[in-house]
Write a structure and sequence with these properties.
about 280 residues; GroES-like_sf; alpha/beta; zinc ion binding; two-stranded parallel sheet; seven-stranded mixed beta sheet; single chain; NAD
Length: about 280
């Protein structure tokens, strides 16, 4: 994929390889300066409408304008992005790995290491063993978690989950009538210390929350649910997911939004969260 810029202000010409970021940081707005979130407000309004910062689209097909997707439109061969939506990376890293820095790896790894701060010996369950879920597993391994349980309806994910460090794998469709909550509570003697939703499915979000240990269990919701869907639990408080989740919601006795490393691929931030990240990616 080739990148073209739509600059918000003049920038020096960059000849380094780039990776795109769907949740960038301008480091100038109120949100960026707060140090509490990476939900930059500079281009969020226009990005959410599928257009560039000036309100226009750069894509056309059959004479009609097409909307941009997540500010990056990376499924196209050529794309146009705002200047803050890309970051330079070392030429030494293959593009099929550097592309994961924009979301998948930093989101999952950061959820375990930065948001949850998983402690040594903790019991952890990860719902969804895709790129984000596998990165959560890596973060849990780095923090020396005890049981690292990958949960997925696709048995083909088990080998990958174990390769990345999962100690257990559970397919919730093969529990002979037991719920995944019951299975995890039984496996961990009362519930998980940390659960992570990496699916965007509100039913799975509920299961992840209810699989937490009573009193101290925490559930980190990473997946983004479809528009109009709500999370509900036995406590009967419906929550519109997009209001709380982007990029990560940290649940325990109360719900509050907490930032993960998602989108934070500015060198100063990634170097703190994932030391030597490009080198680590090339050897993973």
């Amino acid at each position: 994929m080739s990148l073209l810029f739509s600059t918000l202000r003049p920038r020096p010409l960059c000849r380094a390889p780039l990776t795109s970021i769907s949740t960038p940081e301008c480091r100038e707005c109120k949100f960026c300066k707060s140090g509490k979130t990476n939900l930059c407000g500079k281009i969020r309004a226009t990005q959410g409408k599928g257009v560039m910062p000036d309100g226009t689209s750069r894509f056309k097909a059959r004479g009609k304008d097409l909307l941009h997707f997540m500010g990056t439109s990376t499924f196209s061969q050529y794309t146009v992005v705002a200047d803050i939506s890309v970051v330079a990376v070392t030429p030494k890293i293959p593009t099929d790995r550097s592309c994961l820095l924009g979301c998948g790896i930093t989101t999952g790894y950061g959820a375990a290491v930065v948001t949850a701060k998983v402690e040594e010996g903790s019991n952890v369950a990860i719902f969804g063993a895709g790129c984000v879920g596998l990165s959560v597993i890596q973060g849990a391994v780095k923090n020396k978690a005890g049981k690292i349980i990958a949960v997925d309806v696709n048995d083909g994910k088990e080998a990958w989950a174990r390769k990345f460090g999962a100690t257990h794998f559970v397919n919730p469709t093969k529990l002979n009538g037991k719920t995944i909550q019951e299975e995890l509570i039984e496996m961990t003697d009362g519930g998980c210390d940390y659960t992570f939703d990496c699916t965007g499915n509100v039913g799975v979000m509920r299961a992840a929350l209810e699989a937490c240990h009573k009193g101290w269990g925490e559930s980190i919701v990473i997946g983004v649910a479809a528009a109009g869907q709500e999370i509900s639990t036995r406590r009967k408080f419906p929550i519109p997911p997009l209001q709380y989740i982007f990029p990560c919601t940290h649940w325990n006795q109360h719900s509050n939004s907490s930032p993960v490393v998602y989108g934070r691929v500015a060198p100063s931030v990634v170097s703190r969260a994932v030391p030597n990240c490009p080198a680590w990616l090339m050897t993973t």
